[in-house]
Amino acid sequence: MSAYTERSQGSPWADFLSEQAQVLSIAFFFLLCVVYFAATTDTFLTLGNLLNVIRQAAPILIVAVAMTFVIITGGIDLSVGSQVALVNAVAAIVLSAGLPWPMAVVAMLCFGALIGLGQGWFVAYQGIPAFIVTLAGLSMLRGVALYLTQGYSIPIQGVPGFFALGRGQLLGIPLPALIAIAVAILGYVVITATRYGRQVVAVGSNMEAARRVGMPARWTIASVYVVSGVASALAGLLIAARLGSGSSNAAVGFELQVIAAVVLGGTSLMGGRGTIVGTILGALTIAVIGNGLILMHISPFFTQIVTGAIILIAIWLNTRIFTANFRFGFGKGK
Amino acid sequence: MKPRISLRNIRKNFGSLQALRGVDLDIFPGECLGLVGDNAAGKSTLTKIISGTYIPDDGTIHLDGEPVRFSGPADARRRNIEMVFQDLSLCDHIDVAGNLFLGREITKGPFLDRKTMLSEARKMLDALEIRIPRLGRKVAQLSGGQRQAIAIARAASFDPKVLIMDEPTSALAVAEVEAVLSLINRVKATGVSVILITHRLQDLFRVCDRIAVMYEGTKVAERSIVETDLEDLVKLIVGEKDEK
User: Fold this and answer.
1) Residue B10 lies in a domain
2) Transmembrane segments in this chain: where (chain A) (predicted)?
3) Is the pLDDT of residue A125 over 70?
4) Cβ–Cβ under 8 Å, residues B197 and B165
5) What pTM was estimated for this model as a whole?
6) Which domains does chain A carry?
7) Residue B128 lies in a domain
8) Which residues from B are below 8 Å from A when comparing CB atoms?
9) Strand partners, B61
10) A209 shares contact with chain B (CB less than 8 Å)
């Protein structure tokens, strides 16, 4: 009679690798881009250029962190670009009307929260798919911005405190970059270590299970749109402060860059799975590619083609190669 | 003895479908009630009403003699009614410990207290003799039996007054079924009222004190376990069809 023995356990290290495969692969991709541009251009690895990259990436990064929350719940927010434009325009209008800038900043963040709450209400409490609600938002909010400004760019003058938000530096690091880093750290802590973060993941993983254990499932879904509204408002303010004007034509195509960054970072569009670290790497990868191609004097029109191709290739690598049951070829065995 | 939970004339419609057509049921403390019936007889609907997942269209529920109306599953859970759902209701993307504490996370200040949850989760599983080596693993990576064991541990570990189990043994292996049955006997002994839905009729005779038979949204029979046998139960479940 043979003895009863325990089956040996796979090493925790292997478990860790398969769970973090998505983040590791985008990290690898990011480093590849950095090395490539460092080798092919003289200016890429200079401090000035790197600071410039993170300054320019700041709005995308801020909204991408919020978008990670939205996508983890299984939703999507297509309206972030239009929200940025609307806040951008309204901020310029209220500032030129003479509202003190700290008050304007707080008002704009509240305005963003309100827009998000409206969209979240339709998604969570009325059961309309997030894609539809935010597609409508994409059209309407940009429309409101255009209507308010009549399509003109509105200059902001004589508020140096506000401009510092977009142009200032602290210890040599651009202020928008510092704000983006703070937002990213906050997002990371909230999603991994707080009860609210756990609720966001639970709702995206299994909405009915979350409801049955007594989590405020609907409110959690609505709340992530408030988060993305506030983040969009913050991004809109940073852009207005950097450019010194507000325009309804700001941030066109912004939502696609943000969603690309999140998806590149390994967050699943089906909900439940996603990491802030992946999102940060995704956003930086997109920013580095855009910057590097310009430094290489490649046509800016080409950037879009390359960005799109890289998203496709990175996701392809993620789903085909960096998963546990890797197989190559076409339907041959398992 | 006063019933722990008492249902009177419970009705529930889904559109034109009459899922429950006036069900009366009493469950006493320390008792296991087996709920049997064909598919779509209304077993799951009835238990979901007790656990607050569905709100009945008509009828009354008394918990320990006091009339209650559950506003939702959270409300029922607050009153110590726990349910193991047929679909298990686990979050695949959250680890084992996180699923055990889903909805009642332990926090330290604003943050999740992962360490305490892990050690408490280990104690919970040990108490039920459930073997899951790594509690930091995502539930998606576990076997069907382990997932079911987690769902049962989650419901049984927080001092339930009423524990409802909808097909708790369907995905389990022999040893695990034995563990669940002995678990039911143990929690029964502590005064918990257990409601067990199962298609494995032989299990009923191991743990139940009474068996209620549902047919087409009504309760057609109630038998004490000593006055019935397998053959009798099968007849009650299929109804008059076999007599024709």
Assistant:
1) yes
2) 20-39, 60-80, 86-115, 127-148, 168-191, 221-244, 250-269, 276-295, 301-319
3) yes
4) yes
5) 0.85
6) 24-320 (1.10.3470.10)
7) no
8) 51, 53, 72-74, 77-78, 83, 85, 87, 89-94, 98, 102-105, 107, 110-112, 114, 133-134, 137-138, 141
9) B7, B68
10) yes
